[in-house]
C-alpha cells in the first residue's frame, strides 16, 4: 500500500499505481477540489455503481460510504483503488466493504477490492460535523479493538492511544488542525507538517496539466 | 452489532460502533483478557459519550426489534469470527443493554 500525506501527492500516487484515467467516486461536496477524472460517480452510498470501460483505476474521495462504494467498483472491475479519506473510518485499509442503498440501508457486502494507495490530508476533515468526527473515530477505535482480538497488540494500542489523546481535542474544536493531523497521523506513526490550504496546493500542483499524471 | 443495527435502519456506522463497542468488549472480556487491559472499556465508553453517542433509542431504533437485531448480528460473518461465540439471544441482550 502506498501512503502519502497532502493532497498534492495524489497525482504521483495515481501514477505509481498505474492509473491515468480514474473513475472518481465522490459526493458532490468534493466538486470544490476540481480533481480531474475520466468519469464520475456521485451517488454515495450506492448499490448500483458501474465502471465505464474507459477508466483504468478507481479514486475515492470521502468517508467510509464513498470508499466502500469505490471498493465495490474495484472488486467488480479488478482495478486498483486509491482513496483520499475525509473521515477517520479506516475503510481505506481493507479489501472488504459493505453495500448500502442511497438511503444507507445495508443490502450486502463483499471483498476482493484492490486498495493500492492512500492520500491523507487532514485539511479535508476540517469541515466535518462533530458527530461525523466522533462517529468515524469511534469506528476506527472499533478497528483497533478488532486488531486486539487478532493479537496485534502494539498496533492496536498505538492506534487507540492516538484516538484517546486527540479525539477530545478534535471534538472540542473541529478546526484544530494539529489535532486533526495527529488523529489522522497516529495509526502510521507519522506526523506531517501543517501546510497551506489543500485545495490551493492541489490546484497549484495540477495547474497546466491534463489528466492526473504528474510531470516528474 | 453495529453493522446489523446500522444497516437495518440506515444509521451512521460510526455512531452505532460507538454505542455497541462497550457492551461487545465487556461480553468478549473473558475470552481476551489481555486485550481488555490494553484498551480499557471504561475509556471507550467515555469517548463515545464525549462524542455524543449514548443509546440506540436516541436514533429511533424500536425496542420491539431488538430480538430480531440480535439474530441478525449473530448470523453475520463478523460474529462468526468473534473471540467468544455469541448466540442470537446473547446479542439481543447486548442490544437491550444499550437501548
Polypeptide structure, described:
- The complex is a heterodimer of chains A (216) and B (99).
- Helices cover 37% and strands 19% of the residues of chain A.
- Chain A is an alpha/beta fold and 216 residues long.
- In chain A, strands 1-8-5-4-2-3 form a six-stranded parallel beta sheet, with helices on both faces. In chain A, strands 6-7 form a two-stranded antiparallel sheet.
- In chain A, helix 3 packs antiparallel against helix 4 and helix 4 runs antiparallel to helix 5.
- Chain B is mainly α.
- In chain B, helix 1 (2-9) packs antiparallel against helix 2 (13-28) and helix 2 runs antiparallel to helix 4.
- The model of chain B has no long low-confidence stretch (mean pLDDT 94).
- Chain B is globular, with a radius of gyration of 13 Å.
- The interface between A and B is medium-sized, with 35 and 32 residues.
Total beta-strand segments of chain A: 8
Uncertain runs of chain B with pLDDT below 50, 5 residues or more?
Answer: none
CATH superfamily of chain B: Dehydroquinate synthase-like - alpha domain
How much of the sequence of chain A is in beta strands? Answer: 15-25%
Outline the low-pLDDT stretches of chain A. 187-216
Percent helix of chain A: 25-40%
Q: What would CATH call the class of one domain in chain A?
A: Alpha Beta
- Report the helical percentage of chain B: 55-70%
CATH architecture of chain B: Up-down Bundle
Q: Radius of gyration of chain A in whole Å, from Cα?
A: 16 Å
* CATH architecture classification name of one domain in chain A: 3-Layer(aba) Sandwich
Total helix count of chain A?
A: 6
Q: Main β-sheet of chain B: number of strands, strand sense, barrel status?
A: none
> Which fold name corresponds to the CATH topology of chain B?
Dehydroquinate synthase-like, alpha domain
Topology as H/E string of chain B? HHHHHHH
Helix-strand category of chain A: alpha/beta
CATH topology of one domain in chain A: Rossmann fold
Amino acid at each position: 500500500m502506498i501512503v502519502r500525506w497532502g493532497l498534492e501527492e495524489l497525482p504521483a500516487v495515481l501514477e505509481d499505481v498505474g492509473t491515468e484515467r480514474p473513475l472518481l467516486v465522490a459526493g458532490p461536496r468534493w466538486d470544490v477540489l476540481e480533481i480531474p477524472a475520466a468519469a464520475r460517480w456521485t451517488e454515495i452510498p450506492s448499490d448500483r455503481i458501474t465502471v465505464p470501460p474507459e477508466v483504468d483505476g478507481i479514486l475515492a474521495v470521502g468517508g467510509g460510504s464513498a470508499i466502500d462504494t469505490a471498493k465495490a467498483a474495484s472488486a467488480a472491475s479488478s482495478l486498483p483503488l486509491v482513496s483520499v479519506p475525509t473521515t477517520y473510518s479506516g475503510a481505506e485499509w481493507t479489501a472488504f466493504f459493505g453495500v448500502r442503498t442511497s438511503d444507507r440501508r445495508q443490502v450486502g457486502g463483499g471483498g476482493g477490492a484492490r486498495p493500492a494507495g492512500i492520500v491523507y490530508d487532514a485539511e479535508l476533515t476540517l469541515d466535518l460535523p462533530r458527530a461525523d468526527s466522533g462517529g468515524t473515530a469511534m469506528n476506527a477505535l472499533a478497528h483497533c479493538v478488532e486488531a486486539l482480538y487478532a493479537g496485534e497488540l502494539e498496533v492496536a494500542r498505538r492506534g487507540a492511544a492516538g484516538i484517546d489523546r486527540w479525539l477530545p481535542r478534535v471534538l472540542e474544536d473541529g478546526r484544530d488542525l494539529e489535532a486533526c493531523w495527529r488523529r489522522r497521523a497516529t495509526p502510521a506513526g507519522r506526523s506531517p507538517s501543517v501546510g497551506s490550504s489543500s485545495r490551493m496546493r492541489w490546484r497549484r500542483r495540477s495547474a497546466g496539466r491534463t489528466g492526473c499524471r504528474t510531470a516528474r | 452489532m453495529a453493522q446489523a443495527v446500522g444497516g437495518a435502519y440506515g444509521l451512521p456506522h460510526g455512531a452505532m460502533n460507538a454505542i455497541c463497542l462497550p457492551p461487545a468488549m465487556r461480553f468478549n472480556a473473558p475470552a481476551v483478557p489481555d486485550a481488555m487491559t490494553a484498551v480499557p472499556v471504561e475509556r471507550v465508553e467515555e469517548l463515545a459519550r464525549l462524542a455524543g453517542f449514548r443509546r440506540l433509542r436516541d436514533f429511533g431504533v424500536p425496542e420491539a426489534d431488538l430480538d430480531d437485531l440480535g439474530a441478525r448480528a449473530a448470523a453475520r460473518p463478523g460474529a462468526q469470527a468473534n473471540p467468544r461465540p455469541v448466540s442470537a439471544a446473547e446479542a439481543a441482550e447486548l442490544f437491550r443493554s444499550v437501548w
